[in-house]
Hints:
- The protein is an alpha/beta fold.
- Helix content is 34%, strand content 22%.
- The protein has two domains: 12-191, Peroxisomal Thiolase, Chain A, domain 1; 196-344, Peroxisomal Thiolase, Chain A, domain 1 (3-Layer(aba) Sandwich).
- Strands 1-7-6-4-5 form a five-stranded mixed beta sheet, with helices on both faces. A four-stranded mixed beta sheet has the order 8-13-12-11, sandwiched between helices. It has a two-stranded antiparallel sheet with strand order 2-3.
Amino acid sequence: MSPTTHPSFRNPRARHNFLGRTCSITGVGSYIPERVLTNADLEKMVSTTDEWITSRTGIKERRIAAANEFTSDLGAKAAQKAMANAGITADQIDLVIVATITPDMPFPSTACLVQRKIGATRAAAFDLEAACSGFIYALEIGQQFIMSRTYDTVLVIGAEKLSSIVDWEDRNTCVLFGDGAGAAILQNRPNSHGLLTAVMGADGNKSELLFMPGGGSKCPATHDSVNARLHYLRMEGKETFKNAVQAMCTAAQEALRRCEIDITRIKCIIPHQANRRIIDAVADRLGATPEQCFINLHHTGNTSAASVAIALDQAIESGRIQRGDLVLLVVFGAGLTWGAAVIEW
Ligand code: UT7
């Protein structure tokens, strides 16, 4: 595609990228833990059925990290694969950003723990919290460091050990979530394009729809808080569902508008993998065909900040996305937060 016909050329924000410095995704990687927890396993733990979970969510199984495997371990494994795919070594990395709601501990950041595990000794490191929307937030922030010429190589990770904050006695939530991590290497590459645009949004007025009450400054851990099960996530499913469909559609449409392209130009849509019915509703409203959507939630469940990062890696690995294809990522999560990004792979 010639520079003047490239969609980014007509987009004021992306045009700046085009004429200035470009930010490419030079490699992606993901890791999901070995242990598989099936719907049949869950039938033995809470009052649920494979039929209910499959028909209401599309999820058949999810991966659960081992007791001695933490968010930083999952993130480091995904990062190592992304580094290998990008053909870089750890000492080239200038910055590590980890998006997560399940850090190994409140501090230090999981990004610092990943930095140590992969040996990225030159890199600065910090965590970012935007719940399930975290990977797009992290991509956009990572890109800003490249565009501003502050850094040449940024490692962006979405990683979660959600099994550590899921209430395994609450059938409303425990069937939905899984563990895993995905990573991307962002670098300046002349004459190639990665992130063409990213939309980010938030609405703190609806923070009570999906949250974890305990463990922060408002409600530190006490015997009472543990007994009251305040250290587990809570969700109002139906309201969250409605907000997810609305916000994901609006964000996706805004991202397409900024690139001056319509949905038919998108080779692959990678939506947040929370619920098959949400994905179908979003695709329908965007006028997308079912074939355009990449879905892996039947194997992974909802992995929050890792969700679209894992899906992007699996879509590339399976050949669904080829270099040069336009890809639409669209996310939604607690906060509320949402986002969408158009990337040229
Ligand atoms: O990643 C962040 C974003 N997350 C999301 O976007 C998730 C959004 N929400 C959802 O995906 C769906 O709302 C759920 C999958 C969580 C629930 O589906 P739903 O169709 O909205 O079901 P519901 O909450 O209206 O519950 C229907 C019934 C209830 O029973 P009653 O009150 O009608 O008798 C629930 O108690 O289903 C019951 N139920 C279950 N039954 C069997 C809830 N969970 C289960 C279960 N097994 N696991």
